[in-house]
């Protein structure tokens, strides 16, 4: 693409009042990548963040680029928020992806590879090993790898083999002795997923990592005997993983089969990206381009001295030898509203007050404690839950199984459309179903993303409902890495709302209204817009106003334009959006009163908080929903109102701390780019991922949000 065309694209994009969702996501991945460049981080942390950006980019190509190809391949029209149609947008998107890929490769080669030896490990090839080490590797190859490799030739007699998504593949061009060049053949050798990414050679002072492809490359001739190898080409493909589940009449049978069928389709989805080592056979790449209908801008070249697939670096990061080289996170502290955590019966505590949990600063144990006690308590009659993602060895599943065995009514909505967790969720759901639990596999064409739990317990002469509402999954593993909000309560208003919502989910009920719950897809967008409009009215009357929102993503155009109108009315608006933000802040006449920040650091920001000043009668909500079209129209979501003074102040303090952060914070500019927020000359560093471990009630109760 020439410079004039690029400038034309950029001017169209800048003229739009909205920022492209996909281009905004790429800016988010750049902020993650920025963590890999911070001098204060160890090389193991830098490798970790580089691996995360690679994993993020894999999913981006599978889902977002895959979705774009669904339009391109079937001649469906789409105009991106940038103002570009399908083909021009694809050109722009691939330009940005290629530029990011180049930054990753340069950083790895210039800043990480040269500093590995000082940290006790190196990446090397077989030739740099001692003779004894080379012999050991040959033996390992012959016994453990060679039997697993299957050369698959493609010619006029054999069909083109199915190459798996995200696996390393050798494309080997061969020619039989005496044959003419036009009779050369192309064979594929796929490296199985269950072979470690690196072969490890441990010496006293250093660990040597040999990429598995180098071990195979050294011995590849054993697979191609008595033919001439013309070229050996290492590559990796990414396939379209985006699919939409159609509605199914029979939710217990047909729906699950539909999910399984779509999962299988991921294995054969159209190729959307090829990553390949430089020096490749042009004949081979032309054949692949024609076969997969892919253009040059979707081919990402990697130098031999670098490596394909940075996600493999997790093997280095996870080596026990280097365990103490990664920063150790502080132990969780007791919740401000539950200082006696672990010493008092949680059922008794919740009868007297609500508990707000802020993970990972507070443990997930109170939730696990509650459900495990409920499973064994003979007075507990029922447990109802929604489950989106679970830990690999989930205490939640074990507790629910035990509850069912103890004769309690257990209802679980398992969202089998949770992306990339579908198979695990189906497996766990079937366990519960066999144990006698009432299991629902999702709701028709909606994805159940809300996080709710209801425990019904008989206490003396009355029944008490214990409720948990949260922003995060019931997952012990991610609760140590993601920041999330959870409310434990026996509040009758919320308990009624949650009971009604479960009736909607499990049965056929349409309640008139909820008192403290806002739900999607019914009325969440409209309710939030009404809150925004109320702030606009207050500002026009000269009354105090302000909007403070913390979410993962902001993409819904109706919400964005409501925020634009509020800005024009004079409402001060501060948004903390970790990832995608399609709103354009600071544009004269449009969004001058809107500031957008993004927090990216040691923990993944996952909590959602909505705070409206409302002329001093504050409205503060938390929950599972981002401000996206899918959240409002295609998901079962919930936001819950927090009224208890201490708990509401805690949520306000989370926002206030996010706005103060000058270590992990980035400010969004009008053009959609971001700049790092740095401590000023007279400021000390304020890192929220450390400060939340040192809260006290008095300080939190003093917090104010000022526009």
Describe the protein.
The chain has 707 residues and is α/β, with parallel strands linked by helices. The chain folds into three domains: 183 residues, 2-Layer Sandwich (polyphosphate kinase like); 167 residues, Endonuclease, Chain A, CATH 3.30.870.10; 185 residues, Endonuclease, Chain A (2-Layer Sandwich), CATH 3.30.870. Helix content is 36%, strand content 21%. It contains 20 helices and 27 strands. Helix 2 packs parallel to helix 4 and helix 11 runs parallel beside helix 12. The chain is globular and about 90 Å long. It starts with a helix and ends in a 6-residue tail after the last helix. The relative contact order is 0.09. Keywords: ATP-binding, Kinase, Magnesium, Metal-binding, Nucleotide-binding, Phosphoprotein, Transferase. Its EC number is 2.7.4.1. Catalyzes the reversible transfer of the terminal phosphate of ATP to form a long-chain polyphosphate (polyP). Belongs to the polyphosphate kinase 1 (PPK1) family.
Strand segment tally: 27
> What would the CATH topology of the largest domain be?
Endonuclease, Chain A
Major beta-sheet overview: 10 strands, mixed
The helix-and-strand class reads alpha/beta
Mean pLDDT: 92
CA distance, first residue to last residue:
44 Å
Beta-strand proportion: 15-25%
Low-confidence stretches: 245-251
Provide the number of structural domains.
Answer: 3
CATH architecture of the largest domain: 2-Layer Sandwich
Computed Rg: 27 Å
Helix content: 25-40%
User: What does the overall shape look like?
Assistant: globular
Going by CATH, the homologous superfamily of the largest domain would be Endonuclease Chain A
CATH class of the largest domain: Alpha Beta
Helical segment tally?
A: 20
Pfam families: PP_kinase, PP_kinase_C, PP_kinase_C_1, PP_kinase_N
Catalytic activity: [phosphate](n) + ATP = [phosphate](n+1) + ADP
Domain Polyphosphate kinase middle: 133-315
Protein name: Polyphosphate kinase
